[in-house]
Structure formats: structure tokens, C-alpha cells
Amino acid sequence: MKVLVLGATGNLGSRLVPALLNHGHSVVAYVRSSSKLESLLPNPVYRQISVVQGDAKDSFAIKKAILDSKADAVVNTAGLAALPPWGKSDLPVIFRAVLDAVREAGMERKKPLRTWFLGGLGVLNFPETETMFSDYIPIYLEHRQNLALLKSLPPNSVDWSMLCPSTMNPESSDITALSSKGKLIANAVTPPLWQNYWVKNIPLIGGYLTCMMNAPRYETTLEQNAELIASDLETLESPFSEKTVGVIDPK
Ligand SMILES: NC(=O)c1ccc[n+]([C@@H]2O[C@H](COP(=O)([O-])OP(=O)(O)OC[C@H]3O[C@@H](n4cnc5c(N)ncnc54)[C@H](OP(=O)(O)O)[C@@H]3O)[C@@H](O)[C@H]2O)c1
After folding, report:
1. Is the CB of 32 under 6 A from ligand 1?
2. How far apart are CA 147 and CA 123, in angstroms?
3. How far is CA 240 from CA 4, 26, 61, 189, 229, in A?
4. Ligand 1 pocket check for 13: Cβ under 6 Å
5. Cα Rg, the chain, nearest whole Å
């Protein structure tokens, strides 16, 4: 597939570029600064990709980049959610711009565009409930409004998935190194291998304590998540279409 990556200079995006190439995809990096990307990536990697310079808040430019490059899929890693519940970042504006661009590009092509977005653990549901993790631990709340936008889309307008990891750590300072750890276990809508502890039954704080005890179990690596997206984009019909996706390292 030809994949347009927004945020290719970031922690995840920079690792996604080599992971996509390793899976046989072609990469178009949409970045604010091509010279920053060039200084980040080793020359043999940089020479294998196309680069478009632009702002991720500029929906028109993103749509043009998708159509001009004939991209089959888009991954948005641009923008970083604010941590405190009162925090504000550029992510919601970026998210909407990318979403509008992929929706309109899909309409022009008469085929919904496969698109991965980034969310966080907080927008996954407790197993067998509609309660979100962030109902108990209200951080990174901008992901909630982004997910609400995806859920309000008319059916079949964007073939989206939202990857919802907890903290992602680097395995290596070499951003071109592929993951040496095992594959992540991924699950739609709820965190995989969720554990219920006895504290769950404590009135008022049981849910909060269960989240706090589960949270560290969901730390993964940037390389593992890059691998998951790159490998999903090899499939024509993803099991994660129109779903949030939780991940855990089985080890
Ligand atoms: N890192 C984690 O542990 C973690 C965990 C869960 C979820 N997430 C989510 O995953 C996503 C990626 O995280 P990350 O750690 O890779 O973020 P990051 O390292 O901060 O990267 C953000 C990227 O966004 C780009 N960007 C920001 N504003 C832009 C704009 N207006 N136009 C074009 N590009 C723009 C930055 O480009 P410049 O280089 O030009 O600034 C950079 O490449 C975020 O949405 C984050 O909330 C991250």
C-alpha cells in the first residue's frame, strides 16, 4: 500500500516509517519540515520515501497530498494530546483537519480511505460496559472528543481505526531499528487481558483503583505499535475497522 504518514518526525511516526517500508509499503511523509525529517532519518531510509511539506491543521493541503500521491491509506500521528483534564493542545484541530481530508478524499475516490488515528488507553471501555477508562482517570481527554467525531461519521465514509495505547517507550535510540519484542496482543473496544482485582468492589473508588492497578500492564513500545499498524495495513479488510484498539505486550 501507499501510506501517507502525518507526524513522521515524532516518536511514533519516525518509527512507523521504517516499519512500513519493512512491510513493503511505500511511504509519503507529510511533515512541517522536510529538513527536520531528513536529519532524523538515515539517508538510505530518507531516499526511499516521498516527502510533502505542510501543516497538519491544513485540511485542504492534506487532501491534496492524499490525492496527488494516490495514497491508499493514511496514518495520523501528528499532534500530542494534553495530559491534564483542563489542558488544551493542537490535537483536536489537527484531528478534525485530517478527518475532513480523508473523508473528502474518500468521497472523490468513491471509496472510504483506510486511516489509523491515535487515541489513548482512556477511550477504551471497561470490559462488558460502556464506561471508559478516562471516566475514572480523567487525563488525555482530548482523545474522547476525537473519538466522538469518528463515531458521528456517516457509515462507510472513512475506514478508520483508533489505536489506543498506554505509554509507549522506545526500545532503541536508533529509530530505524525494528521491534525485537514479540507482537502485541490487540483487541477491539476494550483493553486485552484486562484484570479485575478484588478492590473493584470497594464503593466509590473501586473502579479508580482497578484502573490504577491495570494501567502499568499496558505499557508497550513505540516499535511494537509501529509494527502493529504496518502489519494491519497489509490486510484489505482489517478486523479493527471502525473500532478503537487496545494493545498489551503478552510478556
Ligand atoms: N507517546 C506516547 O506514549 C503516547 C501514548 C498514547 C497515545 N499517544 C498519542 O500518540 C500520538 C503520537 O505520539 P508521539 O509521542 O509520537 O507524539 P510526538 O513525538 O509529540 O509527535 C508529534 C508529531 O506531530 C507533529 N505535529 C505537531 N503539530 C503539527 C502540525 N501543526 N502540522 C504537522 N505536524 C505537526 C510533530 O511535528 P514537528 O516535528 O514538526 O513538531 C511531530 O512529528 C499523539 O497523538 C499522542 O497523544 C502517545
Report:
1. yes
2. 8
3. 19, 22, 27, 9, 11
4. yes
5. 18
Q: Is the beta carbon of 207 within 6 A of some atom in ligand 1?
A: no
User: Over pLDDT 70: what percentage of the chain?
Assistant: 100
Sequence-ordered alpha helix ranges (H) in 75-141: 91-109, 133-136
Evaluate: CB of 165 within 6 angstroms of ligand 1.
yes
User: Measured between alpha carbons, how far is 191 from 133 in angstroms, rounded to an integer?
Assistant: 9
Tens digit of each residue's pLDDT (9 = 90 or more) over 145-174? 999 999 999 999 999 999 999 999 999 999
Query: Over the chain, what is the mean pLDDT?
Result: 97
Tens digits of residue pLDDT in 135-151: 999 999 999 999 999 99
Distance in Å, CA 80 to ligand 1 centroid: 4
Angle in degrees, 0-180, between the axes of helices 142-151 and 91-109, rounded to the nearest 10: 20
Sign of CA pseudo-dihedral 131, 137, 142, 143: negative
What residue ranges define each of the domains in the chain, with the CATH number in brackets?
2-192+219-248 (3.40.50.720)
CA distance 142 to 134: 11
Asked whether the predicted pLDDT for residue 128 surpasses 90, the reply is no
pLDDT at position 129 over 90? no
Report the candidate in 239, 235, 222, 215 with the shortest Cα–Cα distance to residue 181: 222
- Work out the number of other CB atoms within 10 angstroms of the CB of residue 201: 9
